[in-house]
Amino acid sequence: MTRPILDVENLHIRYGGAPTDAVRGVSFTLGRERLGIVGESGSGKSTVGRGLLRLLPSAKITADKMRFEDVELLSLTEEQMLGVRGRRMSMILQDPKFSLNPIRKVGDQVAETYLRHFKCSRKDALQKAIAMLEAVKIRDPERVCEQYPHEISGGMGQRVMIAMMLLADPDVVIADEPTSALDVTVRLQVLNILDGLVRDRGIGLIMISHDLNLVRNFCDRVLIMYAGRVVETLAARDLDKAQHPYTRGLIAAQPRIGGARAPLAVLDRRPEWLEEVSR
Amino acid sequence: MSVTTASKLRVPASVNALRNIVLFLMKSPTSLFGLAVLALLILVAIFAPLIATHDPYAQDLANTLQAPGNGHLFGTDELGRDIFSRLVWGSRITLTIIFLVSIVVGPIGLAVGAASGYLGGRFDTVMMRITDIFLSFPSLILSLAFVAALGPSLNNAIIAIALTSWPPIARLARAEAMTFRNADYIAAARLQGASPTRIIVKSIVPMCLPSVLIRLTLNMATVILTAAGLGFLGLGAQPPLPEWGAMIATGRRYMLDSWWLVTFPGVAILCVSLAFNLLGDGLRDALDPKQMNRR
Amino acid sequence: MSTRRPSMQGALGQIGTILVTLLGLLVLTFIIGRMMPADPVRAMVGEDATRETYEQVFRSLGLDRPLWEQFFYYLGDVLTGNFGTSIRTGQPVIQDILHVMPATMELATFAILIGAGLGVPMGVIAAVNKDRWPDHLVRVLSLFGHSMPIFWTGMIALIVLYAKLDLVGGSGRMDQFYIGLVPETTGFLLIDSLLAGEMDVFWSAVNHLILPASLLGYSSSAYITRMTRSFMLDQLGQEYITTARVKGLSKHQTIWRHAFVNIRVQLVTIVALAYGSLLEGAVLIETVFAWPGFGQYLTSNLIIGDMNAVMTCVLIVGVIFIALNLLSDMLYRLFDPRTR
C-alpha cells in the first residue's frame, strides 16, 4: 500500500456532558480502498465517521494523529475545515427522506455542492449536477432536478445523495449506513452505483454498516468495533477466519439459508473486551 | 432526613415531585426571581394591615400629589391618599383575582376537557366548536364585551376573565384525556362496570391535573394583565378600590406632572406578571425530562 | 415538520367548521347584546318619552318576541349587511367602523413589521445559541415584552420620550394644527399625506406612529420570538442540516439557506395570528395615545353601552380572527411544496 489517504491514531471522542468516551482509542488507516466499519448500534461507528468530518459540535475530539493527505484535521480552523468538507471528504447519510432538504428542489441541492467549492455560474453548476445525476443512473435528470425530495423514491433519493456528495470529486467518502433505509430490492442497485463510482474515481470509501454480508461483499478490509474500540481488523475475504470471539459471535448470529435449523447463537459480551487493546 | 420509614411511605409521590420541581426552579436565577416575587406578593397581601403606613382610603386634601418622600414612600395621589399603602392593599385584590379565576377556570376546563376527550363523539364535537368560538377572540376583547354586558365591577371582571379563559384549559385537558382513553386500566375499569362519570372523575381527571395546573400558572400573567387592562379602561375594579390598573387610569390625568401616580402601580403589575411568566417558563423546563437531567 | 394535509376533503370540512363557528359567533354576540344593561329603547326615545312611544319602539325593535325569534331577525339583518345604527353617532355602525378601521390597520401593520423584524432574528439567534447567553438574553427580553402592561408602558414612554425628551410625537395621529389639512382618500394617513404631497403632515404622522407601533410590535415580538426559536430548534436537529454541513456550507449558510427556508411558511402563519392579537393591544394603546381607531371606538361605546356598536365590533374582531386563521392556512398550502 502507498501512503495512506487517511491515518488515524488513538482517536477519542466524548460527547458534551457524557461521563465516558463514545469512541476510545480508535486507530486505522485508509488507502484507495473500501474499508468497512461494522458494529452494533452504539458501538461508536457513526461517531467515528462524523468525528472525521468534525461534525459533532458539542463533542470533544482528541487523537494522536488524524492525518488526511497533507493536512492534520484536528489542527485546522473551522474555516479551513469548510474547504475540506464536501470538497475533499464527504459523507453519504442514511435516509434520503431526512437527509435532503424537504423544500428545496433536488437539482438546486445537488448543484449547491459544486457552487460552494468552485467559482462558476449557477447554470454551469446545474449542468454539472445533471451530468452527475446521469452518472448515478437517474433517467431524465432534467426533470428530477425540478422535483422536490418528497416526489422521488427512496432509492432515487439515495442516488441523488451520492451524486451530491461525489460532485466535487472528493478523495474520501464516508457512507454511513447508506442502504439501511432503503427497500431490499433497490439496495443492491444503489450499492453497485456507489461501488462503480468509487472504483472509477479512485476514492477511498469508508462504509459504516451493521450488515456483515454487505461489508463482506463490498469492502476490501473490515474494522469490527465494540463499545467504542476496534476489536479486530481483517480483510473482508477472511471474515470467516476471524479470531476475536466478538466477531465470531456476530458471524454466528447471522441466519443462513440452508443453515442448521438450530436457534441462532446469542451474542455474548464480555466485560474484558471493553479494555483490551488490539490492532 | 429524619423521617421514619412508615411516614416516608405515606408521603405521596406528587409531594415529592413538587419538591423536586421547586428545587429545580431554585437553581435558575430567573425562576428564583419569579418565586421570590410571588412569595413577596403573598406575604404583603397577608400582612397588608401591618405593612401599609396609611389607610388606603384616607384622603388628605391638604397633601395631594405629593412627590415621593416626606412620610409618603411613593408619594400621594390626587386625593392625598398614600400610594404605597394603596399598592400594598391592592395586592389583595390581585391575589383575589388570581385565586377566583383559577378556582372557576380550572374545574370547568378540566370537566369539559376530560368529558369530551373521554366520551368523544357528538358531545366532543359540540364542545370543541364552542371552544373554537371562544378562541376566535383575543381574550381582552371578549372580556370587554362580557363586562359591558354584565356591568363594570370587580366581580364581573373576574367572571368575564373566567368565561374567556376556560377554553384553552379544556383543549389541553381534552388532549390529555384522549391519550388515556384507550389505556388498559381504563378498559379494566369499564369492564368492572364503572360508569362513565366514575371513570372520568376517578381515572381521567387525576391524570390531566398536573398539566392543567401548569397551564393555569402560565395563564396567570395574562389574567393579571387582562384584569389590569379592564381596570384601566374603567370596566374592572371601580374607585376607590386600590386596584393597580384602576390606579393607573386615575393617575393618567396627572401623569405629566406627577409621574409617581402611574409609575409605581405599573411597576407592581409588571413585576407580578413577569414573575408568573418567568415561573411558567421555568416550570416548562422543569417538566421537560431532558432538561431536568442535564443540570 | 407538519404532516401533509388532504386538500379537497379538508377544504370542504374546513368551510363547514368555519360556518358553524361563524354561527356560534353570532349567537355569542347576540347573547352579549341582550345581556347589556343599557336599555336600547330608552336610549332611542329619550328619558321623558311617554309609555306609548316606549311600547311602540319596543315592539318595532322586535323586543316583545321570544328570544330565538329575535335571534333570527338579528341573523337576517347581519346577512343583509344591516348592523344597526349607533346610538352615539346616529350613523350606521358599519360605516363608523369602516371609518375608524384604517387608523388601526396603519398602526397594526407598522407594529407587526416591527414585531416580526425584531422577533424573527431574535428567535433564530436564540435557537442557534441554545442555552448560551444570547438565548437567555433573548428569553428575558421577550418575556419582558410579554409581561408589560402595554397601557402603562405607553404612558411611561409618553412621559419620557415625548414630554421630557421630545423625541417623538405625542397623542393622536398627527400634530394638532395639521388636522383636517389632508383630504381623507384611503383613511391611511401616511398614504393620504403622500397623495396630497404634504410632506410635513407625512413626517408628523410618522413621528406619532412610531412610538405606539414600536410598543405594540415589541409586545407581539414575544410570541413571534418564542415560536421562531422552537421552529428553528426543530429544524436544526434535522438530518438535512448535517447534509448541508457535509457539503461544506458555513454555519451562516446552513442556518439561513437550509434551516430558515424551512420555517418560512410556519412563520407566515404565526405572524398572521400575531397580527390578529395586536387588536387586543390596540384597544389599550389607542386609549393611551388617543388614537382615533377601532379600539377607541369599541371602548367608548362599551362605556356608554351602545349595544349595536359593541355587538358589531365584537363580531368583526371574531371574523377578522377567523379570516386570519383561514388566510394563514391558505398561505401554508400555497408555499409548502409538500401540500401542493
Automatic annotation (TrEMBL), chain B:
PROSITE patterns the UniProt entry points to: ABC_TM1
Entry's Gene Ontology BP terms: peptide transport; protein transport; transmembrane transport
Domain ABC transmembrane type-1: 91-280
Subcellular location: Cell membrane
Segments crossing the lipid bilayer: 32-52, 93-121, 133-151, 157-173, 212-238, 258-280
Keywords for the protein's UniProt record, in alphabetical order: Cell membrane, Membrane, Peptide transport, Protein transport, Transmembrane, Transmembrane helix, Transport
Coiled-coil ranges (or none): none
GO cellular component: plasma membrane
Origin: domain of life: Bacteria
Protein family: Belongs to the binding-protein-dependent transport system permease family.
Official protein name in the record: Peptide/nickel transport system permease protein
